[in-house]
Design brief:
Shape of chain B: globular
Largest sheet of chain A: 6 strands, mixed
Strand content of chain A: 15-25%
Largest sheet of chain B: 2 strands, antiparallel
CATH topology of the largest domain in chain A: Rossmann fold
Distance between the termini of chain B: 61 Å
Largest interface: A-B, 86 and 67 residues
CATH architecture of the largest domain in chain A: 3-Layer(aba) Sandwich
Order of helices and strands of chain B: HHHHHHHHHEEHHHHHHHHHH
Oligomer: heterodimer
Strand content of chain B: under 5%
Structural class of chain B: mainly alpha
Chain lengths: ~450, ~400
Amino acid sequence: MTRTNIPDRIELRRGLDVPLAGAPKAELDETAEVGPVAVQPLEAPGVKPRLLVKVGESVLRGSPVVYDKTCPELKFCSPSSGTVRGVELGPRRALLRILIEPDGRDRALALEPMSERSLEHAKAEQIIERLSSTGMWALLRERPFSKIPNPSVRPKAVFVNAMNTAPFQADAAVVAQAYPEEFRAGLWALRRLTDGPVFVCVPDRAVGVFPCPDDPAFHVVRFAGPHPAGNTSVHIHHLAPIRPGEVVWTARAVDLPLIGAVLIRGEYPAKRIVALGGPGVREDAARHYRIRLGSPIAGLTQGRLGAGDFRIIAGDALSGTAISADAYLPMTCSSVTVLFEDRERHLLAWANPFTRGFSWSRTFLSAWRAPRPEAMGTNRHGAVRAMIVTGLYDRFLPMNIRLDFLIRAVLAQDWEEAIALGLLELDPEDVALAAYACPSKLDLVGIVRDGLARLAAEGV
Amino acid sequence: MHPLLRWLHRWKPWIGPEGRWRALWPVYEATETFLFTPDDVTSGPPHIRDRLDIKRYMITVLYALVPCILFGIYNAGYQYHRALGDAAPLWRVWWDGLRFVVPIIVTSYAVGGFWEVLFAMVRKHEINEGFLITGILFPLTLPPTIPLWQVAVGISFGVVIGKEIFGGVGYNVLNPALTARAFLYFAYPAQISGDSVWAVVPATGAVDGFTSATALAVARATPAGTDALQHLAQAGHTLRSMAVGLEPGSIGETSVVAVAIGMALLLLTGVGSARIILGGLFGMLTTGAAVNLLAKASPALASAHPAWSVPFYYQLVMGGAFFGIVFMATDPVSAAATNEGKWVYGFLIGFLTVLVRVFNPAYPEGNMLAILFMNVMAPLIDYVVIQAHIRRRRRYLEGFAHG
């Protein structure tokens, strides 16, 4: 069986749209600037940061402040002009963040702008150099292992993810409409990085929303179906699965304006678009916001949350990372989801078939009616148990993977079996939905994350 | 805070990790989380979790067993009064049924629960809700006349050897309830099997003894050259009586109707694997039909073995196979884990059940042995399915030419 023709629509059935309340509306709003901004190089996987500036030094927007010791071309830049106020160190004196006090003038370091026409014929090296020296290279990922791409190899394909099936991710259409030229420039840049195809994976309803250039290398593929139909691993699996020895590069459509901006705008971008959503967000405030890179998270959340004990998550509720209320916006963060910490205890709830509230399982009568958006909290809804129910995880992953056996192989550290079963096709985020559904409350995300980390460290 | 919870929390200083009675912590923890959902929040992605947990999963099985339990109680009283030959009022039938069945269930839960708690305390793990099911499934596979000490010995064997030595629920190879029953079956065959399975000796002494064989034993004992169905009917076993379940037999297994209600609940909620149940029923009926064909093809054999001519659908209503396939074979821990494997696993249980029933000279009922045997074989089935899956995956990856 040989597949030469690429489909333009793929329909997936397995998965689940978790009916979380507080979906961000497809509107764009501005945020006020608050406090210092931060450069946080440790967010990028595998980076060993070294400082390029001193405390007290003044920097411009786009001035490099950190470089990566393992790949000195990769630099991370200040998102605002101002003075370096301080350096925060993490465990083992790793550079956690460099704080920059904005001077209010926001002057930018001049870069040489490229025209869209010249970008169409630019060399890969030119683009790699510009993206590395501005830190935008760290927005791209290489599969397997989702690491920062090795610029010396050519991927067999590039995947651009313009979907937002997880609760909640930024709507790429909002971003593309706000920055159409940068978006297109970003696509061209990716096109120059590979000799293979560039797959732009879009939601089923999005026809013609994305300004995709007219070039045979671009393939716009619509993915229909519930979450995780929007996950990059799923796209790769159905369009160009990775065979041994191959790599593909991946990008998120919501990051393309940043990549495009450093190429065609002649200066480092000041802001990005972040979606704010979740039950903890005031109903009228759940939408997309333009916010300065590296801003305090308070700039996004202040005055926009309801009352209660919150968990702020950089990313979506299934696979994001919990951050504190005084954290700084991570560079790759395109959505912030706010949940309530739910510690309420219910008498004999497990025996009550009439429990209100959503469950995917038909052991709840509520599963028999159409789901309504629900203000879900962080309660685990049960204790951790051994793996008892079988064949369940596969209903939440539309890939040719037997997740039960893959998880067992990883737990048994049988790497050969785990790879044969498809571990390298996965990213931790792909099992987050199965973990959501797991009645034994197992940490599938952690198991897959640790398994991939072990494999990456041992080098396969 | 709920007043009951506040009262429970008052004990925490003594039972908690620093307290004097900390050995009792698993009991306390189990009681508290039994009464109230835990207040634990997620510690990482996913930050939200579904409401389904193992407790609800298990309680749904218990709900599905309720028709079998109720019918079993009624039937125990009914059989008792049938043995006495009196016409007791309905309340009396229920009362005597309860007198037989409740002590068995209480013994099973109490003794099994003791081992469960002991292991939880020594091993310092939580008490598993799987015992909720084992503790009721086991008594339902016993005749109401079983001596209570045998119930205690059986459940001890099932919980300790069948489950805990492997590490508890989720790690066991065999179904613990069936392990317990198999132990009794081989250790004390007189009280559990054979044609004296129902030997009520009323306390009043009005009748000194009454034995009544199960349909399976009757069918098997049909003299050569006679008709098994007639022989069954003479002993009082008609298709209708066996389907309704007012028959001698184990407590929970006699009524096809009650089991079917439970099956419907398991299938509707998705708790019982439809693949295993349908595969099992299909295996049993097709094998039964094949035996019928064999009897038809060779009149000599059919005459020597009248049980071979019992119509295949009788396999479903006789004995405990339907109960076993619906409630025992579907135990997810000891069953096959792959979807294709579940079909094969279910089918072979049905197949082996009939095989043992028809061809094995020693045991009238083959379902228990079929399920235990397939429990052992389940990993092998999964292995074959997974190897095929890995080959298919490799072919899938190789099939992509572009890029």
